[in-house]
Amino acid sequence: MTSNSIEPIYGNTPPTWIMVTLGHLIDNRLAELQTGPFGTTLHASSYRSTGTPVVAVKHIENNRLNHDDLPRIDDETVQRLSRYRLLENDILFGRKGSVDRRALIKAEEAGWLQGSDCIRLRFLDDKIFARYISYVLGTSAYKDWVLRHAGGATMPSLNQEILRLTPLPLPPLPEQRDIARILGALDDKIELNQRMNHTLEAMAQVLFKSWFVDFDPVTTKSEGRIPFGMSAEIAALFPGEFIDSELEAIPMGWKIGIIDEVFNLIMGQSPPGETYNEIGEGIAFYQGRTDFGSRFPKPRIYCTAPTRFANPGDTLVSVRAPVGDINMAIEKCCIGRGLASIRHKSGSQSYTYYAMHFLRDDFDVFEGEGTLFGSISSTGFRNIKIVVPPPKVIAEFERRISPLSQAIENNERQNVTLASIRDALLPRLLSGEIRIKPKNGLTKPGQ
Fold it and tell me: What digits encode the pLDDT tens for the residues 361-372?
């Protein structure tokens, strides 16, 4: 397919670049596409708790894979389905739903298996730099194009025929590498911040579980020992014995209560549909867990007539399938009927956030409560029974965890800024408005 017959979705590109379709590269054996194994070939019954990970569409994020909840298969199944094994620099797409997302496979993910609902792109020529192509596929121009072309009556659907039509601007290889290097530096910093946040999150969860789930300081004191790494002043906040309760043995002086007694809970309410927009007018609106991130939701829809609010630091809980998914509001936002906002009456945001995480079993009870999908009512939520620690223990937990929470938020805000810079820079690099001078960074044409 000639450049003149290809839809110019990226605007005018530099004259030294060529415009091709992915199908042209495939026909000339420069690239290949591979659809994942049929469901009859890879059954859910093949999944194991250990082994080689299998990537599904839900694991594909913005140019990366989410490693949470990966199903796994044994070596025998991997060998049988070896044609679906991933290599470093493969690009993976989802076949249904979020078809505008893609993931570039990293070295540590090589050998994993693509799932039935994925399509894999692999380049077979070293004159095409996969990381550059992955950034092209992250432009708003490409995302708009693929959503226009993706079929499906109820949700977007992607196949090899559509992908073959994808327009690709190809600069000389050195420019491909330079563009990928500039954008990759931003992405590398984003990923570093994400790894730091994962570590900080794990540290906070460990402390919450130790104090409020396993009651480690109480157990230690009941055995006549001093809690490790804890000052005498802090250790004095915990008793040295347990008492029986209707839920379990709990520390003496603690009690059993219900959510409504110790938390402020607001159930979401959806404003009129005509007040929604995607251009940033009004306040960020979250209907459910669709826009949840690793800790904070990502604004996509806005509302000019909000009805129910969550404030910064409030914990957001999904109250419709899946019930119990957790995020935290990073700014004042409007919440729809798929969410609830909650905070401990003391104002403690970290204690609230982790307390909701450890109510997973309670939320799971409501997963089958709806006619078709799980849901939890205001009454059901408010009457969940919980262990109630003394205010001083909660305050000490908040004091310790607050710096970690602030660091997580700072990293997240920096990532939003870095992603905005990357996304603004990308189309300008592809249009030639900004060119890269070897060893001299960015420059405008003619300079």
Answer: 999 999 765 545
- pLDDT at res. 322: 87
Q: Report pTM.
A: 0.84
> Which are the contacts of 414, defined by CB distance < 8 A and separation ≥ 6?
189, 193
Tokens of residue 388, six digits: 């109630």
Please state the rounded mean pLDDT for residues 397-410. Answer: 97
Determine contact, residues 115/43, Cβ cutoff 8 Å.
no
**CATH number for the domain running over 3-171:** 3.90.220.20
User: Can you say whether the dihedral through the CA atoms of 168, 170, 173, 179 is positive or negative?
Assistant: negative
pLDDT tops 70 at residue 298: yes
- Say if CB 119 and CB 137 are below 8 A apart: no
Nearest of 49, 142, 153, 39 to residue 96 by alpha carbon:
153
Rg (CA), the chain: 25
Q: In what order do the strands lie in the sheet with 326-328?
A: 263-267, 339-344, 315-318, 326-328
- Kindly state the average pLDDT of the residues 392-414: 97
CA angle, 199 as apex, 194 and 204 as ends, to 5°? 120
Residue type, 182: I
3-state helix, strand, coil in the chain (%, to 5): 40, 20, 40
Least confident span in 7-11, 89-93, 161-165, 261-265: 7-11
In the chain, where the domains are located? 3-171, 172-220+390-431, 255-388
73: closest CA among 41, 34, 107, 119?
41
Q: What angle in degrees, to the nearest 10, is found between the helix axes of 140-149 and 391-431?
A: 90
Do domains 172-220+390-431 and 255-388 share one topology? The answer is: no
Q: Where are the alpha helices (DSSP H) in 298-390?
A: 349-357, 360-364, 378-382
Class level of CATH domain 172-220+390-431: mainly alpha
- Return the minimum-mean-pLDDT range out of 295-299, 359-363, 438-442: 438-442
Q: Is the pLDDT of residue 440 over 60?
A: no
Q: Kindly indicate whether the domain formed by 255-388 is annotated with CATH number 3.90.220.20.
A: yes
Output 70-76 pairs: Cβ under 8 A, ≥24 positions apart.
Answer: 71/44, 71/47, 72/47, 72/48, 73/42, 73/46, 73/47, 73/48, 73/113, 74/46, 74/48, 75/51
Taking CA 343 as the corner, what is the angle to CA 215 and CA 278, rounded to the nearest 5 degrees?
130
With tokens 């607001």, the residue in question is: 266
What is the spatial distance between Cα 418 and Cα 435, in angstroms, rounded to a whole number?
20
Both tokens of residue 348? 């403690």
Closest among 331, 447, 346, 335 to 392, alpha carbons compared = 346
Check: CB of residue 267 under 8 Å from CB of residue 378: yes
